[in-house]
Design brief:
Two copies of one chain form a homodimer. In chain A, the strands form seven sheets. An eleven-stranded mixed β-sheet of chain A has the order 3-7-8-14-11-10-9-24-27-23-22. In chain A, strands 18-15-19-20-21 form a five-stranded mixed β-sheet, with helices on both faces. In chain A, strands 4-6-5 form a three-stranded antiparallel β-sheet. By secondary structure, chain A is an alpha+beta fold. The first copy, chain A, folds into three domains: about 15-275, Bira Bifunctional Protein, Domain 2 (BirA Bifunctional Protein, domain 2), CATH 3.30.930.10; about 295-395, Anticodon-binding domain (Rossmann fold, 3-Layer(aba) Sandwich); about 415-485, Translation Initiation Factor IF3 (2-Layer Sandwich). Mean pLDDT of chain A is about 95; it is low at about 1-5. In chain A, helix 2 packs across helix 6 and helix 9 crosses helix 12 (about 385-410). Chain A contains 14 helices and 27 strands. Chains A and B meet through strand 2, helix 2, strand 3, strand 4 and strand 5 of A and strand 2, helix 2, strand 3, strand 4 and strand 5 of B.
């Protein structure tokens, strides 16, 4: 039954990570499968988490000068086919509308897998002069990519995302924009979702179809696998040429503008679950938690209930004005007719950062017992001063979640020099491996075939370090990040 | 060119209202046609207006206990066909996905024209007991209805909207929810968009396919035609029965829950344009205006420019903390290298409520000239106290926009008793006509065939008034609202 809690214990994270993930998503009522193959239903608790990260990213996007817009769901077949690499990359995953309004369509319409093609064609008339540039647009929408194997949030046939599309008068400006997009993702991942990320450049084999290059942020999940958490692409003049967009520059020459695009999706709800969760379920950073504090009244007699209720009512009045880093405090008092233990499990599964237990003896002492979800640390706290302390307590908690993830990543990242060492490390311990690579697609593929790991990115902060490629021994300029990935 | 203003004069509203509408939408850069038949591109200025009404409605929806969720874009054919009236109503407008992932699909997927069918099927497992009710959900998404004749914002093959879907243990609770939805729409229309609305019940012929009854709010546009601005439907147990949803009630009986649904779309951007606009373009209510104030510097010499810039800089510092009824003040100083006259036209076309002209003589007197868009009222205002006055000035302006629309509707609403009088009134003067009707679909249709007008609704505030139906003379209990409509 949907409102009566966690039910039986969830699958152990240590034993079966995918089973644990699935249990958490379903039992915490984040999302559900739908009658449509590969498509998900996002339930209130999951959608509230998405809204929090979406709104935070939207603030970053607007603050950096981008405007929200909307482009059609449909991309005519002929438009999708204009950029050759692009169509080759997406065609196998496209869902096609072939009939509408009771008739066969003259031209099939793709459900957008992404919007580069239709945007490039549409903005032709808007970009006439250098004065019309840069054109900085962002879309919040749904896209469809027909995936064979799907998993709630992580890989679904339909997902929600943000896709920014920008056009610039110079290559340098476009390159700076690629960085702006990636920085927005880094900030949301690290400062909002408490997920540390490695920033870097994708290899040629892993870049976006139609891009000159792609940057990404890569995060480590609790099973030590990697998850690509956002990508930002330099499109060069590829789409502008395909759609024949030209502008009159200051030097009176007509040129193709340079483009970028960058995207961040509901996948990040999955990343937040897998980056922080533990055996009891979700561990949510306070910034993104739908409830930051849950109050659990404890009583047996009616007399005690009245006392406890009075103390909680007084506390609640003081909570109304509390403002946290992510807006007004979000809290809930759980008065359901269930045992305290049931409620503890219920809210632990849902990852609520702080739980306040208030019983008759606490009330007599003017206090409650505050329990931290992340480490179950218990502490008696005076009720009179709690409201004033909560913003700092939540900020400290947010930092603790980030630090734990950072420590976990550090403990599971190794620097290795040979394919054998990498294979053994990936197979036995998992995690991230920093290893030298000559830059060739053949060596990249050899590692993948031998280990299942891929090059997640060439990290920006990987120092110059002369070495020998782990596959063919040719010179390597720096180490790159290998890992098995979602 | 997109950034160089209104260009030639727009079509006269008095001469050609549809031409005026189209010019305003295109020249004010609200929306544009796309390469996909009937689908629109919403540009930054238009999207900002949509975001404002969307966010306000979202606050109403959350405040009344509803949670945002997401359901799939696709509705399998067999699900859409479960509720007979529903499929009959929507089938002709459906776009079908028949191929995906390189293969023909076993079952066609409809692009949702609305989500009743897939939601009813999906929530079956969530509604087991009366304790799971009410289930109050809301979706912000895109829907597709293949329309033959389209017009930007007003009728497009794809549009953005909000659709609430709720389930209740009793019919009375569902009926109250239909009212909650309609009240949210009334509040957003009247208090945010300054559009007065008539609330009422749709006739049987105009109700939602699959509903027991439908309520709507109806607004008058500047050409005196009606526009349906939001609808709220009592679904009864129709969809619950079709999907076989049952819950165990307090009396230990298994029952079908009662459902409602209600929707509000990007059509309301079109309504805002047509309810308030005039010969110079948009007239936006301050709550929804992307810019509430535009400052236009006036100078010829460099010496004057410096003086004016200093005064404006000082003013801008005082504007940073101004909070209006719709959040922090939104303003812009137009420093483009264009004439003041060009800028006045540019911002009048875009409907900015207040324009502040600041020239060297104004600066010497410590003032600026404030011009109201709605009536071009001009007034010298001291710059030192302007910031403090703006919230009230904008609130007064918001009220003035509403009052003007209310007066316009009153001046164009007539109470008439015969079909001949109604026909002449509709043909010569247009507007709303309140007339007696016996309640039969035949008489409703006779009026439509004779005049092009339809019954917009049976207004809630239409008093009991015994009369004779304007078509067949049978008894009528009260007057209903007839009008030609968008």
């Amino acid at each position: 039954m949907s409102t009566t809690g966690p039910g039986p214990t969830i699958t152990s994270q240590a034993d079966d990570f995918p089973g644990w993930y699935n249990d958490v998503v379903r039992r915490a009522e984040l999302a559900d499968y739908s009658p449509v193959r590969g498509c998900m239903i996002i339930r209130p608790y999951g959608y509230a988490i998405w809204e929090s990260m979406r709104d935070e990213l939207d603030r970053h996007i607007k603050r950096t000068g981008h405007s929200n817009v909307y482009f059609p769901l449909f991309v005519p077949k002929s438009l999708l086919e204009k950029e050759a690499e692009h169509v080759e990359g997406f065609d196998p995953q496209v869902a096609w509308v072939t009939r509408a309004g009771g008739k066969e369509l003259d031209e099939w319409l793709a459900i957008r897998p992404t919007s580069e093609a239709i945007i490039a064609d549409s903005v032709k008339d808007w970009i006439q002069s250098y004065r019309d540039l840069p054109l900085l647009m962002n879309l919040w929408n749904n896209v469809v990519r027909w995936e064979l194997r799907t998993r709630l949030f992580l890989r679904t046939a339909e997902f929600l995302w943000q896709e920014a599309h920008t056009f610039h008068a110079t290559e340098a400006e476009a390159a700076a924009e690629v960085d702006t997009g990636l920085e927005a993702y880094r900030a949301v991942a690290e400062d909002w979702l408490a997920i540390p990320v490695v920033q870097g450049r994708k290899s040629e084999g892993e870049k976006f179809p139609g891009a000159v290059y792609s940057h990404s942020i890569e995060a480590m999940m609790r099973d030590t696998k990697a998850l690509q958490a956002g990508t930002s692409h330099m499109l060069g003049q590829n789409f502008a040429k395909a759609a024949d967009i030209r502008f009159l520059d200051r030097d009176n020459e007509r040129k193709h503008p340079w483009g970028t695009s960058w995207g961040f999706s509901t996948r990040m709800v999955g990343a937040t679950i897998m980056a922080h969760g533990d055996e009891a379920g979700l561990v949510l950073p306070p910034n993104v938690a739908p409830f930051q504090v849950v109050i659990v009244p404890i009583f047996r007699s009616e007399e005690d209930r009245v006392k406890v209720a009075a103390a909680i009512e007084q506390l609640e009045a003081s909570l109304a004005d509390v403002v946290t880093a992510s807006g007004p405090l979000r809290w809930k008092t759980d008065w359901r007719e269930e045992t305290p233990g049931f409620k503890y499990n219920h809210w632990e599964l849902r990852g609520v950062p702080l739980r306040l237990e208030v019983g008759p003896r606490d009330v007599a002492a003017g206090q409650g017992v505050l329990v931290r979800r992340i480490d179950r640390h218990k502490e008696p706290v005076p009720l009179a001063s709690l409201a004033a302390e909560l913003p700092e307590r939540l900020a400290t908690y947010q930092q603790a979640v980030f630090q734990r993830a950072l420590d976990f990543r550090a403990a599971n990242t190794r620097s290795l020099d040979t394919l054998d060492a990498l294979r053994e490390s990936i197979e036995v311990e998992g995690g991230f491996v920093m290893a030298p690579w000559c830059g060739s697609p053949e060596c990249e593929q050899a590692v993948n075939e031998a280990t299942g790991a891929t090059i997640r990115c060439i990290p920006f902060d990987s120092p110059d370090e002369a070495g020998r490629c782990l596959v063919d021994g040719r010179p390597s300029e720096r180490r790159v990040l290998f890992a098995r990935a979602y």
